[in-house]
Each structure stands twice: as C-alpha cells, then as structure tokens.
C-alpha cells in the first residue's frame, strides 16, 4: 500500500513520501501536503476514512482548519494498567504501577 501512496504523492506533488512535510510550520504547505497525503492514503487503501493516531493536540487543531477534509476527532481513553504494562514490555522495565482513584 505504501508504494502506491508514494507513487500517488509523486504524481501530485513531485515529491516522494519521504519528502512531504505534514508537520510544516508554513500553513499553506501543511494544508496542501496533509490534504494530498490523507487523500492519497485513502485512495491507495480503497477506504473512505483514514485514522490519524499521532496524539498531537496542536496537530489536530491544525488539521481541523483543513476545509478540504472532513475531520472527526475521537478521544479514546485507555485503561492505565494496560498502558503501564505496555510501557514495561516495550522498554523492558519492571514497572509497578501505582494508581489512586478519587470518587
């Protein structure tokens, strides 16, 4: 799929996937590159919806300004025990999570 995305971006921007700047500080570049990237990814995958899980609030704010795209923020809450377990596994740490619940 990513080879098709790369080819599509090259056709539309004359840049490869490794050269587009989806985090550009320049608003026009940010807008154009994200619109092309997300649209091309959807086309290549044959889907109507693309999920961005970058977890960046500032990036989301900027994506929401893109009028060419229909953006729907989704807030997902993760069980803290799962997060601690995952972090311990990935970083090979011995993690003993401590939680306090306020009710």
Characterization of the model:
The protein has 103 residues and is mainly α. It has a domain of 62 residues. Helix content is 48%, strand content 0%. It contains four helices and no strands. Helix 1 crosses helix 2. The longest helix has 19 residues. The chain is globular and about 50 Å long. The termini are far apart. The mean pLDDT is 86.
In short:
The protein has 103 residues and is mainly alpha-helical. It has helices at residues 2-13, 27-45, 57-63, 80-90.
What helical percentage do the residues reach?
Answer: 40-55%
Low-confidence sequence ranges = none
Structural class: mainly alpha
What does the radius of gyration come to? Answer: 18 Å
Count of distinct strands? 0
Please work out how many helical segments DSSP would assign.
4
Distance between the termini: 47 Å
The run of helices and strands is HHHH
Strand content: under 5%
- Overall mean pLDDT stands at 86
């Amino acid at each position: 799929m990513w080879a098709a995305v790369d080819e599509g971006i090259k056709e539309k921007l004359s840049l490869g996937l490794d050269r587009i700047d989806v985090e550009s500080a320049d608003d026009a570049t940010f807008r154009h590159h994200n619109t092309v990237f997300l649209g091309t990814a959807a086309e290549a995958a044959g889907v109507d919806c693309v999920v961005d899980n970058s977890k960046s609030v500032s990036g989301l704010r900027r994506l929401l300004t893109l009028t060419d795209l229909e953006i729907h923020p989704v807030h997902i809450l993760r069980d803290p025990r799962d997060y601690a377990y995952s972090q311990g596994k990935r970083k090979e740490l011995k993690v003993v999570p401590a939680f306090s619940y306020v009710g």
